[in-house]
Amino acid sequence: MDELRDLALNTRRRARRIVLAVTGLTVLAVGLAMAAFPNRTFLVALVAFAILAAEYLWAKRLLRGAHDFAESLMALLSDEEIGDAATH
Prior knowledge:
Layout: H1 2-34, H2 41-53, H3 57-87
Helix pairs in contact: 1-2, 2-3
């Protein structure tokens, strides 16, 4: 009985990994295909990495790096806006 339960659990884990990988890679492929057109391709890529980050550490690290970069960029832009407003 335990063997059957373990087999079912392992099968479910493998199926989850496969579904996440296929979904994430499909969204990433769509994002890369969209790169030829003027749009918000980076948003599609972020969604893809968010999906992949649910299962893969490398995607989670990449997503964390993108988040940190976005926070730094927002802080820089808000500082520049404050500086511009003070000079006018």
